[in-house]
Amino acid sequence: MSAIASLDVRPLSRLMKALGDETRLRMVALLSHGELCVCHLEKALGLTQSNTSRQLTVLKAAGVVEPRREGSWVFYRLAPQLDELTKSQLRALVNAFGKREVLRRDVERLLRAKGPASCK
Amino acid sequence: MSAIASLDVRPLSRLMKALGDETRLRMVALLSHGELCVCHLEKALGLTQSNTSRQLTVLKAAGVVEPRREGSWVFYRLAPQLDELTKSQLRALVNAFGKREVLRRDVERLLRAKGPASCK
DNA sequence: TGGGGACATGACGATATCCACATGTCCTGA
DNA sequence: TCAGGACATGTGGATATCGTCATGTCCCCA
To answer: What SS3 state is found at A107?
Structure first.
């Protein structure tokens, strides 16, 4: 019969839906270069604390990122994908963002500021 | 300052938004193997005529597909991407779908039925 | 030229998304 | 134990999306 019927695009559509937003896409662009905590993303993207947390919640619910608690703050990083389609898509995206040298420098600068100054 | 500020993800987020839906993703999966007319997609995906047209309108507005009129009916195919990010993402997607041999057979069967029987 | 097929679109109710404001939770250091 | 910083979440209103039904447009053919 129809093979399209057996093609499960649910995981992929979930991923796409989560990435169908400028802010969340920029978050992923930054996270392509390393893990960052909420306040880093907040500052880098010029968002309110509330909004930053919300968007991360959406990305987490879609399985795009995963949190890691470290003392008082929470670091987010890209989560490994189980589904083959989402895996290849996210890899392609990270690869595209990974080529942006300027982004890498942004992330490094953010992480350097982490130590003594924390997230202030 | 921040390089993320200069990274324009608007075209990509538009693409992702359009693909953040199971039905539209399945349409793209089929169109990865060749152009199809509305009634083909309608039958293959088990959608109403109205809904099929709507979803294609969304994909068209996002620049994912483009229509080609041929007499009484309209064929849709994947549209070439101008933006680098959307180009690489869509290429990765088509590549992933392109590996699904069963899908290719589906499309061929649909196109074979086209000639005499039209879309009936 | 009139009818029917293929597709698009207006209207609309149901549902989901988005963002800000305020408040709540958890951890840390004094 | 208390204050404050880092995050999360309840609430609510504006806005957008989704799918259906009905209708409109365009094209082909008898």
So the answer is: helix
Residues belonging to chain B with any Cβ–Cβ distance to chain A shorter than 8 Å? 2-4, 6-7, 9-10, 12-14, 16-22, 25-26, 29-30, 44-45, 84-85, 88-89, 91-93, 95-96, 100, 102-103, 105-106
* A110/B80 Cα distance (integer angstroms): 37
CATH number of the structural domain spanning residue B52: 1.10.10.10
Q: How confident is the model at residue B118 (pLDDT cuts 50, 70, 90)?
A: low
Interatomic CA distance for residues B120 and B102, integer angstroms: 23
Q: Give CA torsion, residues A15, A66, A96, B94, to 10 deg.
A: -30
Q: What is the pLDDT of residues A38-86, one digit of tens each?
A: 999 999 999 999 999 999 999 999 999 999 999 999 999 999 999 999 9
A116 within a domain of the structure (yes/no): no
Residue B116 — pLDDT band, cuts 50, 70, 90? very low
Residue A83 domain-assigned? yes
Total number of domains in chain A: 1
CA distance B112 to B47: 21
Q: State whether the beta carbon of B2 lies below 7 angstroms from any atom of strand D.
A: no
The whole-number pLDDT of residue A118 equals 58
* Domain span holding position A54: 10-110
Inside any domain, residue A120: no
Using the CA of A17, which nucleotide's C1' is the nearest one?
Answer: C17
| A36-37 vs A73-78, strand pairing mode | antiparallel
